[in-house]
Amino acid sequence: YPTSIEVRVNYAMSLLGQKKYDDGLNVLNQGIKMNPSAGRLYLGRAAYYKLMGNAAAAQADEIKAAQLGN
Prior knowledge:
4 helices; 76% helix; 0% strand
């Protein structure tokens, strides 16, 4: 898995486009564990949650990203 935040987000978004939801969420979740202050990762995960129909989780991640300045 990539280590840079932007590379990780881009990789996860490419997996999203391939409908590899579990793999993409894993990439983002690992990134959040490694760098919990990276709002961009939360925004990426929110996109996944929206497409998966989990509006509450998407909103929580969007709020967290906003709190982090994204």
